[in-house]
Amino acid sequence: MSHPPTQAPAAEVSPFDAPARWPLALLAGSALVWLVLSSLLALVTAIQLHTPSFLADCSALTHGRAQALRETAFLYGWAGNAGVGLGLWILGRLGGHPLRALNWAVVGTVFWNLGLLAGMVGIATGSMTGFAGLQIPRAVQPVLVAAFCAMALPGVLAWAGRKREGTYAAQWYAAAALFLLPWFWTATQAVLLWSPLRGVVQTVAASWHTQSLVSLWLMPLALAAAYYIVPKQTGKLLPGYESAPLAFWTLIVCGGWSFGRHLIGGPVPAWIPTMAVVAQCLLLFHFLVVALNFRQVFAGGSLTLQYLRFGLVAYLLTGLLETITSFRGVGVHTQFTLLVPAMEQLTLQGALSMFLFGGLVYQFPRIIGRDWTLPTFVSGHGSLYMLGVVISVLSLGWAGLAQDALLNHSQTPFAEILAQLKMPLLLHTAGQFALLAGNVLLLVAFLRSAAASCCREEGAAALRPASSAS
Amino acid sequence: MKNRPLFLLGLFLAVLTSWAGFVLGSHGQLGSLTPFFDEADGQSHPARLPGLAARGQLVYADLGCAACHTQQVRRPGFGNDQARGWGERQSVARDYIFHAQPQLGASRLGPDLMNLAGRKPQAPSADDLHRLLYTGSAAHPAFPFLYETREIAGESSRHAVRLTGAAAPKAGSEVVATERAQTLVAYLLNVNSGFEYPEARPLPAKSPASPEAKK
Q1: How high is the pLDDT of residue A470?
Q2: Of B22, B31, B139, the CB nearest to A198
Q3: Pairs of CB atoms within 8 A across A/B
Q4: Do A327 and A277 touch, CB atoms closer than 8 A?
Q5: Positions in chain B short of pLDDT 70
Q6: Which of B72, B79, B139 sits opposite A332 (nearest CB)?
Q7: Residue of A nearest to B60 (CA)
Q8: What is the end-to-end Cα distance of chain A in Å, rounded?
Q9: I need a surface site. Which of A84, A469, B111, B197 has the fewest CB within 10 A?
Q10: B3 belongs to a structural domain
Q11: Is the Cβ pair B141, A267 closer than 8 Å?
């Protein structure tokens, strides 16, 4: 195995990036649009938590539907688009050839986003499937799988046809994520939508899918970005890199097993929550190695490293908290309370999004060949987002602890519980507002940079003779 | 990782074993559960949901009720589900075999609804549920889009919601439950798991547990 790449000049643009510029910018742009939409919906659901009547008389935005819309826009829209964009870029650069079959990626991206749009309309009008994490209406799901295969094709080709024998951790994670999603998503569709299993086995399959979505698809893409960027930004080899393969396989093998921590005491076979404890304990090794590999992020000061640092801390906290709450004695308190969404926020907004932001902020100037036009907006996004995540995770955690005491250890009526949780839930709303504001800043910065790059290209094209303009 | 096909095969096998183990494994264990025939009352349990209620489950799913309500009672010692009157016993897999799509839920911003019809000390009536859905309460949003306000033409509708106070419609009109509201309420009132299956009995029984109880 080769050593991880070392530092590159700051304005490095590899010759591989030019042909991939607009396909990758399309992925990044659609990701950011979905991100803003999902944070808008997150604000709606946050307000509904303390004021249940907010927009509830609008049938498209009942709390259940708004949650489903938010989650779909976030997972498939934001994280999916951004992660695939980063994965393709990394596989192309490390594979040693320009990306091939980029037309497929563009067509796939267009259909993926149109499919998601159709799915969102479907959810709002009452066709959601009712499985958390998989709410996209059944008619749309096969389209999304097909679109994803087209999007992922250049990445898998770059992996299979790579120039060098040695591979990097960033490549394993990216290739695994792009390769695995169609398989397990199709398997889930088969047993939930086309030939549904009986009774609670559906719940098992749906929870398995949601966990796999994060552990086998989105997190590997985010980790790929981190593995690619950290050595480039710090200019040093990753410490403990020889353990990275084992950490990778631990995540791939055990990542999907830990969904049972949400089913403690439920009407499912008792070995499923037990396997979650086993899986979480094994995954501690993965988290340990990731912590070792990335410990240099604490030294650097660039914005990318700040994002990655925050993401790393959140990722490690996630691993620790998920392990603790997978034990029955603890899980019985956290289950069904707001501590669950608090931890989900930590995983998805804290770890996943931060790694992806780190990747995006690093990638975008390199693919368009110019620095961010509005760097203050980007750093403003960083500050607002980090602030928002901290506020919202802490306030939800506070609300969850209070809720556990009132719900599980007393007879307090639900209206009373709600009244007592009002303060932390208002804080949570403030946190979501900060996230939304930050995301709008990033979208504006993205659009300005992309527009500036377009203008420059047009200007350059006008100066060249017509024959060579293409 | 140098061997290209082996890497992809390894990935594929990792996911395949996980899927087969969890999904097919629990299907093998629970997929063939049959209703339990009780010789004492000559009936099998659980009963199928009546047609109206079965359609109501779709409304429950598409409105996303599971975002705030669970449908799973935990056993004594896990929270205080019994003390809140949500059910005498824990929910077991057999309770759900006739649910086209079990709505276990993962959040309890509202009460558990597994046993709404058998709620102690007093189960809500259809009227109570319609009133809650139409007017809402401090902790529950109102869903007026499930109801229709119209002029009373001749006799008042038998699906009219009995409302008093500020929520009451003006004289000569009535608030009528749409079909979706009717099916939803029928569903909520039919989800009931009162019957005590052998596997649902609390574990510290005097006699050795039956083999099924270990499931």
Answers
A1: 34
A2: B31
A3: 215
A4: yes
A5: 1-3, 202-215
A6: B79
A7: A130
A8: 40
A9: A469
A10: no
A11: no
Q: Domain span at residue B153? A: 41-197
Burial (0-12, 13-18, 19+ Cβ within 10 Å), A92: buried
Q: How many domains does chain B have?
A: 1
**Tens digits of residue pLDDT in A237-259:** 999 999 999 999 999 999 999 99
Q: Give residue B77's region: left, alpha or beta (phi > 0; psi -120 to 50).
A: left
Instruction: Choose among A184, A92, A118: nearest CA to A145.
Output: A184
CATH 1.20.210.10 fits A19-449, yes or no: yes
The sign of the CA dihedral B104, B105, B107, B112 is: negative
Length reported for chain B: 215
* Mean per-residue pLDDT of chain A: 91
**Domain contains B13:** no
Say which DSSP state A266 is in: S
Q: What is the CATH number of the domain that holds B103?
A: 1.10.760.10
Rounded-to-integer distance, Cα B136 and Cα A438, Å: 34
B38: phi then psi, degrees, rounded to nearest 5: -100, 115
Quick check: is B10 in a domain?
no
Cβ within 8 Å, pair B92-A166:
no
State whether B102 and A202 contact (CB < 8 Å).
yes
**Chain B residues close to A134, C-beta within 8 Å:** none
Name the residue ranges covered by the structural domains of chain A. Answer: 19-449
Give the orientation angle of helix A219-234 with respect to helix A303-325, to 10 degrees: 140
With an 8 Å Cβ cutoff, are B97 and A132 in contact? no
User: pLDDT grade, residue A14 (50/70/90)?
Assistant: confident
Asked if ipTM goes beyond 0.95, one says no
Does A347 touch chain B if contact means CB atoms closer than 8 Å? no
Alpha carbon B140 to its chain's center: 17
CB B110 within 8 A of CB B68: yes
